[in-house]
């Protein structure tokens, strides 16, 4: 394997903000660290740290590890953004409002030592209002927007492997995902890298918990089981899932976390590859995702014998509100940390 040298990226001082916070919050950040040797523009991740005397001293230094967690079992958050596998305007930066809330407390009150947010290659989006991309007719090919499953989850597994090399250990972090990002996070943890065709990539560090927010888990049901409230989205979902998973719908169930073999999920929990805690939160006012996505996923996890499957109640309002507002995502993470 080609070795990966990410030391060209350096820690910097920056500010992040959230709609409900009166002023920006200072952070230390390393942006867009590539996790593949010949990374496209989305094969990278960003890491945010609270400002402390130790992290301030890192400004200007190359990124070679996560800061030491010290004696306290402070934890990390790793996030996988949404955007229907296709929206180039929805990136790893969508975690910033939640980071602002997380790091707005003073010093010792901050319960996280680091937040990492992953970008990953996207699928074509020919009908995007400002940035349409259709590989067949594109003037300039853009490999970063031509991913088809399992390319998205492979990217995320490579990103988690880079974080492992930086010191991310088993049980040291919560893995969260919003919308399709929840799908990808669950695909990455509830199955092995080998199941996704990655023989050379080790298992991801085990998250202490998985947190799914307004998540997509059952792909066939997004076309054939939307229910009356979301029925009008049927054609849109058929199109976007066709780009992300291929138009052969017989392949969609095997890619759906809510349809993974329960015995296989149970086995991964017993072998210590999947967490004993999963929190699923779905806004009942979400105009893009019906409640049955969470319900089906929850039922499958219970059937698989995951020790604690908890329904979160922080997500309200629109589909994007949890990350746009930041506080819902952060409250969900805090609830999850309290359950550990
Ligand atoms: N602007 C986004 C909206 C979106 O994220 C989305 C749309 C339909 C169903 C699910 C969505 N998000 C899941 O990641 C898009 O249309 O790609």
TrEMBL record:
Keyword line: Hydrolase
A GO biological process held by the record: L-tryptophan catabolic process to kynurenine
An example Gene Ontology molecular-function term: arylformamidase activity
Source superkingdom: Bacteria
Gene3D superfamilies documented for this protein: alpha/beta hydrolase
PANTHER family membership: AB HYDROLASE SUPERFAMILY PROTEIN C4A8.06C (PTHR48081), KYNURENINE FORMAMIDASE (PTHR48081:SF33)
Protein name: Arylformamidase
Native organism: Actinoplanes cyaneus
Lineage: Bacteria, Bacillati, Actinomycetota, Actinomycetes, Micromonosporales
